[in-house]
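Morning F.,

Quick status update on the modeling queue. The single chain you submitted on Monday has been processed. Sequence for confirmation:
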Amino acid sequence: MSYLDDVINSGQKANPFFCLMGIEPKKWGEGKASLMMTVRPDMTNGEGWLQGGMYTSLVDEAMALAIYTLLEDGQMIATISCTTTFLRGVRAGECIIAEAWVVRKGRQIIFTEGRVCSADAKYELARCSASFTVR
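Structure tokens below.
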């Protein structure tokens, strides 16, 4: 069974990191995906804002899920590079959404982009671009 099949059948339980972070897969297909997460107090930095790596981790997972919707059986991926620009902070209790899409899929390298927004889509919180290798 593939990772995408696991997500379809088990949702959050398909990925231990989803369980750890409270990430819920929302939509995926045709090179796109979205994930939702509620910010917990233990995810914040010393000033009470969501720690920057959490944005990157959430959108990285969304980009990976978007890619898996385009892969053939048996193919796997690994992140090569990832650049995140932080635009706005959020605090514990707020729900955020990561949306991601495949920009270009080659045989060995896939380029993606993504963003993190407030749940109501009123605020864009972060933008990300990444490349992945296909194994």
